[in-house]
Amino acid sequence: MSRMRPKPNATPDDLAFGINPCAMALEAGAAKSLLYLRDTKNERVHELAARARTAGLRADAVDLHRLDELTGGGVHQGVLVRLRALEPVDLRAIAKAPREQGSLVLLLDGITDPQNVGAVLRTAVAAGVDAIVLPRRRGALLTPGVHRASAGMSFLAPVAAPQNLAQAVATLKEADYWVVAADAGEGSQAATAFDWPKKTALVLGSEGEGVSHLLRRESDFAVALPMDPRVESLNVGVAAGALCYLWRRQWPFPKSVP
Questions:
Q1: Domains of the chain, each with CATH number or no CATH
Q2: In sequence order, what are the residues at sequence separation of 6 or more whose Cβ sits closer than 8 angstroms to the Cβ of residue 125?
């Protein structure tokens, strides 16, 4: 077995741990090997090891210290997988693809908390989002924390390669997308009354800083969720879910999709 020796309390980025993330990594063909707790009594862990072996992958039993070491003390539930390089989706191809039911793309601007990124990715899969664009800078990439927070949906989410968000906006505009910023500033419209474009590029900013000035200037519209004035803001994962389904209410799933 190859040796993976991270520094103390560090987790290599080519890992996912926990039962649900490991299960989804195996289902998506993203795993290349599996480690599990030698003394585990958890039948789901044993099932994952069996699935890995059936798929021709190496599945090795190790002690608790080894799992704790590799996950930096994270909640691994007795199992982890080592990952293949994840293939990003082609944003330009997605933007140009014809879709009768419309298209929604998310751009994550300055969202650095893996919990929030994971929540957005999980929502994106549920809502049938066509692509999620992560930035080269000022954002969280696909890390073990993101895989865990998304319950493994990060392996199914159509994530575009990390790139400059301004360039991504230009690519989407060339393909007739309208850019909508989730921003409660001057000129914003109530998201619940907004006439959502058929092809929408929705920019989501962090809970603290919001959408950057550059992307706000590049946006065609700004929307905000109406809220009780005693609530200053919503977690970006919650806001993303509400906004995605407001768009989806106007542009429903094709009949073949539940």
A1: 15-83 (3.30.1330.30), 91-250 (3.40.1280.10)
A2: 153, 156, 157
Contacting residues for 175 by C-beta, under 8 A, at least 6 apart: 92, 95, 96, 199
Task: Give me 80's structure tokens.
Answer: 């982890």
CB-based contacts of 105, cutoff 8 Å, min separation 6: 91, 94, 95, 129, 130, 131, 132, 133, 172, 177, 200, 201, 202
Distances (CA, A) of 48 to 25, 26, 64: 10, 8, 17
57 vs 26, 28, 83, 87, 148, CA distance in Å?
10, 14, 11, 19, 21
Residue holding tokens 């994270």? 74
Asked whether the predicted pLDDT for residue 12 surpasses 90, the reply is no
What count of Cα atoms within 13 Å lies in the side-chain half-sphere of residue 190?
4
Given this model, what pLDDT does residue 158 score? Answer: 96
Hey, how many other C-beta atoms are within 10 angstroms of the C-beta on 66?
A: 17
| Global pTM exceeds 0.85 | yes
Q: Are 126 and 155 in contact (CB under 8 A)?
A: no
182 contacts: CB under 8 Å, gap ≥ 6: 191, 202, 203, 204, 205, 211, 222, 223, 224, 239, 240, 243
Check: CB of residue 16 under 8 Å from CB of residue 118.
no
Position 108 scores a pLDDT of 95
